[in-house]
Design goal:
Layout: H1 12-16, H2 20-27, H3 31-36, H4 52-60, H5 68-79, H6 83-97, H7 102-106, H8 118-128, H9 130-140, E1 146-153, H10 164-181, E2 188-194, E3 199-206, E4 210-215, E5 220-225, E6 228-236, E7 241-245, H11 253-266, E8 272-273, H12 281-286, E9 299-310, E10 318-322, H13 336-340, E11 342-352, E12 359-364, E13 368-371, H14 377-386
Antiparallel strand pairs: 1-7, 1-8, 1-13, 2-3, 3-6, 4-5, 6-7, 9-10, 9-11, 11-12, 12-13
Helix pairs in contact: 2-8, 5-8, 6-8, 6-9, 8-9, 10-11
Length: 403
């Protein structure tokens, strides 16, 4: 599980929104545990009231005796107890089973989904087929952009092998070995989410163990668990690029993925290089003109808002420029800094068509880009290529015209 925090099930209203029949079916699996914590679950045959306040207290203060499976279930159910997640769970179930009448045909008699709440759906899905819950949560956990490392392949286009499942299985095993060597646990799983332009994979793995103190109403207790995180691997087959989004930065994971993905998926651990993918020379050569959007559908305007310069002297000095618009007073970059220092990083604000508030993105040489949202990436990459900020093909002189 990831960091143990319950945002929804800690609310009595959310717990009460779960049908009693479904909640009882879940809780009775851990009847002995709850009894040790002072909560007697009502017997099905005798009826009786459930003490929701006591239940929440127990769920919010796990101790060393709390079953790990219960913690995992609570975390995932809590994360997916939303209307949007309900729709995603049902759609994933349909895709897997081919059954559309999920409420009538699919569930056993001890579960009910008559007029279900989102928490009902999440809980029942966990009881019926937890693989559905795990996959939907993985997709929801897909990192929303942030920092990507770009690696160019030795081929202008990427073609996946016919036996991709076997390649991913081998990749998963070696990644697990590496994570275990870092004391993050061996458990690793790769999810393939496909994609029309970019093909997305998520790698779920552990982090270092955490031990927390809590209070059970009588004494201090402790709980230990291993949080989970998700890294992203994205293949741009059209341009022969591998994009990696590791959750830890800085760290060795980007280099690890570069080597192991090449080795297991394409049979060559040197398939992807660290050659420079991005350039900031257009800002120096063309100034304000380099930020034109021209005929780029989906983009209204782009401003440069931050520049970082590196003086390649014995002191390794760095100078940072920040502004609402770097080119507000001049259409070109001017001064001694421009002549003597290397431009190594730039931040931009982009206004997308139909929107009023800008969103930032950042380029860091030689091959790092940071975006605000996943859906922004393809539009910005197309603009970067046309404006000569991005050379996404080996041996390409990038002859696009600055707009």
């Amino acid at each position: 599980m990831a960091d143990y925090r319950m945002k929804r099930l800690s609310n009595p209203g959310v717990l009460r929104s779960i049908d009693r029949k479904n909640l009882s079916g879940f809780l009775t699996q851990y009847r002995d545990f709850f009894a040790r914590r002072g909560l007697k679950l009502p017997e099905k045959s005798k009826g009786g009231r459930l003490n929701y306040d006591k239940l929440i207290t127990i769920l919010m203060t796990p101790d060393e005796e709390t079953p790990h499976e219960l913690l995992d279930a609570l975390y995932l159910i809590d994360e997916l107890s939303t209307p949007d997640a309900q729709a995603a769970l049902i759609n994933e179930f349909h895709a897997r089973s081919g059954e559309m009448e999920i409420f009538v045909v699919s569930f056993p008699e001890n579960l009910t989904l008559d007029n279900p709440s989102p928490a009902d759906v999440a809980l029942c899905m966990w009881l019926y087929d937890r693989n559905v819950v795990v996959r939907v949560h993985a997709e929801w956990a897909m990192p929303n952009a942030t920092r990507f490392y770009y690696f160019r392949s030795s081929e202008s286009e990427l073609e996946f092998p016919d036996r991709i499942e076997e390649a991913l299985s081998n990749l998963q095993t070696e990644l697990g070995n590496w994570f275990e060597s870092q004391k993050w646990g061996r458990s690793t799983e790769i999810f393939d989410f496909g994609g029309d332009v970019d093909r997305w994979f998520l790698v779920r793995h552990g982090q270092p163990y955490r031990r927390l103190e809590g209070w059970n109403g009588k004494s201090i207790v402790s709980i230990e668990y291993q949080p989970l995180i998700y890294d992203a691997i994205v293949f741009d087959g059209e341009h022969g690029l591998l994009k990696v989004k590791p959750c830890s930065h800085p760290g060795p994971e980007a280099e690890l993925y570069r080597n192991l993905v090449g080795k297991h998926v394409f049979g060559d651990d040197r398939m992807f290089s660290e050659d420079q993918v991005f350039s900031l020379e257009p800002l120096k050569d063309y100034g304000q003109r380099s930020l034109g959007c021209g005929a780029n559908e989906g983009l209204d305007s782009i401003r440069a808002t931050g520049l970082i310069w590196h003086f390649q002297d014995v002191y390794g000095r760095v100078e940072t420029w920040n502004s609402d618009n770097i080119f507000s007073s001049s259409t070109d970059l001017e001064g001694d800094v421009v002549e003597t220092a290397a431009l190594i990083e730039a931040e931009f604000n982009v206004v997308f068509s139909g929107e009023t508030n800008p969103r930032p993105f950042r380029l860091q040489l030689p091959n790092i880009a940071k975006f605000s949202r996943n859906e922004d990436i393809s539009l910005i990459e197309r603009w970067l290529t046309e404006q000569r900020f991005m050379d996404n093909e080996a041996g390409n002189d990038n002859v696009a015209t600055i707009l």
